[in-house]
Each structure stands twice: as C-alpha cells, then as structure tokens.
C-alpha cells in the first residue's frame, strides 16, 4: 500500500512510520505545519508542532530513507481548531482541542489530501487498536491503558478509519522507546508533549481573554442565590473548577466551592459544594458510530468523558438523533462540550461503540 505517515517529530509517530516501512509499505512522511508563527507554539517537553519538531521529523524520515514533506495546514488549523475552541468557551462549553484536531485536521484535511494524491492510508502514532473485518472498522483501546488514545479517535467515521493505520496499538510506550533506540532514532528519549499546543504559556484564561475581551459577571451561590463575587468572563471557568474562583470568603461549612454551571448570556457563574457536581444522566448530540452500528435499544456500556479518566458503567440509548445515558456510578466535573465515548468491554480491548458531544447533564 501507499502510506502517508503523519510525523509530528515525536517518538511515537517516528516508530509508527518505521513499522509501516518494515511491513513493506511504500511510505512517505509528512509533517503538518499548524502555525504561521511556529515559534509561538510551545517548545521542549510541553509542546508540539514547533520548528524543532519538524526538524526531528525530517531527521527520522532521512534515517528511514523515505520521502518527506512539510504541508502547511496553519490556516485550516486556526479556523477549525483555535476558533472552534474560543467559540465553545464563549458559549459556556468545555471543548477538547486535541479531539477537534484529530477529527478536522489529521483525519479530515490530511486524509482528504492523501486520498487525492493516491495514497491508500494515513499512518499515525496514536495508541489505539484498529482492525477492519469484512470492510467494517473496529476501534479498540490500546494495550497500554495509560497511553490509550481511542477517546480522541472515537469521533472518526468508519470511512476515515478504513484508511487509517495505528501501528502502536498493541505496544507499551516503553517498548516503543526501546525500539526507537534500537533504530538509532534521535527522538527515542524525547519527552512527550502535553497541554494545548497553541497556548504558548499554558495560561488558557489569559489566552481566551485576549481573544474575547472582558465580559464581567457575577459568581453566585447555586443554593442560596447569594452573590459571592465578580469575574471578567465565563470563558475563564470550567465546570468542576475549584481553584482561582476569586471568592474571598469560604463556604459556611468551610469546604471548597466548585464551579457548577456557566450562563454566558447573563454572565453568571454558579458555584457550590462538591456533591452538587454529581451527574447521573447525560445527553449527547452529533453521534458517530465508527463501526456503522448505532445502538439498538438500551445498551450496557462503559462511558468515558475525559481523555484520561472519567469512566462509569452506564446504559445508553439512541433515539435516532441523540444519545441518552443513564450512569450506574456518579461522575463529577462533566461539562457540556466535552465528548462522551461509549465502550463495550472485551478481552481484546474495549470496543468503541460510538461517541457524541455532551449537550446536557442532570
């Protein structure tokens, strides 16, 4: 097969490309330039998508003796990922920009261009297991549970998955680093990137304030209605947040207060005790079924609401438009705008049944 290997400049994508080469595929490497000013993105252990990363990707491609290109996706990344991120926060929701990037950039824009150029598949360093049985894709958790990325891939369509390769799904991260060292890849010990790549200093609140300006509002006790303080914008808060609320006095019982809900129209941020964060029901819109099999009646499953953690046993039902989920265990800090992914536990790795975007909680 003709395979386009997306090479971020990290160890995972380099080893994924190496495995595609070893499997006998005709591999071409590509690095995505996602910023018109790459120096503004994070460097070192906390970032990705920098000039340094593109050079690391090129060195890995040279070592593997495969062609290598840099594709400029900066404009589309700004429109699809950064502007969506800002717009969601302005609407009082909590988005996951990495999920959006995977959906809109790596497996829509990239795959679209790859197919137009005659490639058969896109290969990435994501930790997830993927198989295609009788033309139907099956996406599962990776062997390395701590690195599993099936959550951020669950928004991909079956057609996108048919043209995707995840060579690392059956490996542990430690094995991947060992393999990189054995092949003399310079990125073998390169630290993993984390946090949001397009916020250079990691200060999300300041980033959003620069984009949206200040929209003052009130911090209100959810039970009593008492005004506890002022703030400069609902975009500076997320459901479940405890620190940095700007409230001078403690709660009457001495316990911390948490953000319970955001009302962008009125500018109200409601706060209260931790137990009021508990969620037992979730509604989700924009359902996606990677294996083209929508839920048929009430379905026992395990749901996940964050990239790492936030899981619970549940019963989910699809009404033809959205998904309603009844949780068997309470979850806290669940916010509209987050993705919810439905899994069916299996010995071969939990199977992704579907995903949706949380629209309401109760």
UniProtKB/TrEMBL annotation:
Site (described: Interaction with tRNA): 126, 338
Domain tRNA-specific 2-thiouridylase MnmA-like central: 205-272
Segments traversing the membrane: none
Alphabetical UniProt keywords: ATP-binding, Cytoplasm, Disulfide bond, Nucleotide-binding, RNA-binding, Transferase, tRNA processing, tRNA-binding
Catalytic activity annotation: S-sulfanyl-L-cysteinyl-[protein] + uridine(34) in tRNA + AH2 + ATP = 2-thiouridine(34) in tRNA + L-cysteinyl-[protein] + A + AMP + diphosphate + H(+)
A single MF term (Gene Ontology): tRNA binding
Protein name listed in UniProt: tRNA-specific 2-thiouridylase MnmA
Name of the coding gene: mnmA
């Amino acid at each position: 097969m003709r395979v386009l290997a997306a090479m971020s400049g990290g160890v995972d994508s380099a080893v994924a490309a190496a495995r595609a080469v070893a499997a006998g595929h005709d591999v071409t490497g590509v690095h995505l330039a996602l910023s018109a000013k790459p120096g503004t993105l994070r460097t070192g252990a906390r970032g990705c998508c920098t000039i340094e990363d593109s050079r690391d990707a090129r060195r890995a491609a040279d070592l593997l003796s495969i062609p290598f290109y840099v594709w400029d996706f900066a404009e589309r990344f700004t429109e699809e990922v950064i502007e969506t991120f800002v717009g969601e926060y302005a609407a009082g929701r909590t988005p996951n920009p990495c999920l959006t990037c995977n959906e809109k950039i790596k497996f829509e824009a990239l795959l679209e261009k790859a197919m137009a150029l005659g490639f058969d598949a896109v290969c990435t360093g994501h930790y997830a297991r993927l198989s295609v049985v009788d033309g139907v894709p099956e996406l599962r958790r990776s062997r390395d549970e701590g690195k599993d990325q099936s959550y951020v891939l669950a928004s991909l369509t079956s057609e996108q998955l048919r043209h995707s390769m995840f060579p690392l799904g059956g490996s542990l991260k430690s094995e991947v680093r060992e393999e990189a060292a054995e092949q003399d890849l310079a990125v073998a010990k390169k630290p993993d990137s984390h946090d949001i790549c397009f916020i250079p200093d990691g200060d999300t609140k300041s980033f959003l304030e620069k984009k949206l300006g200040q929209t003052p509002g009130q911090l209100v006790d959810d039970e009593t209605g008492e005004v506890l303080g002022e703030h400069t914008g609902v975009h500076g808060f997320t459901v479940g947040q405890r620190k940095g609320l700007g409230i001078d006095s403690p709660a009457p019982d001495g316990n911390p207060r948490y953000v319970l809900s955001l009302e962008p129209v009125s500018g109200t941020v409601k706060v209260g005790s931790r137990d009021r964060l508990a969620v037992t029901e979730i509604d989700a819109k924009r359902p996606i079924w990677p294996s083209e099999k929508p839920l048929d009646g009430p379905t026992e499953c395990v749901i996940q609401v964050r990239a790492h953690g936030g899981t619970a046993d549940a019963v989910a039902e699809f009404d033809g438009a959205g998904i309603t989920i009844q949780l068997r265990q309470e979850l806290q800090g669940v916010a509209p705008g987050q993705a919810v992914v439905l899994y069916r536990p299996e010995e071969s790795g939990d199977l992704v049944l579907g995903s949706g975007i949380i629209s309401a909680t109760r």
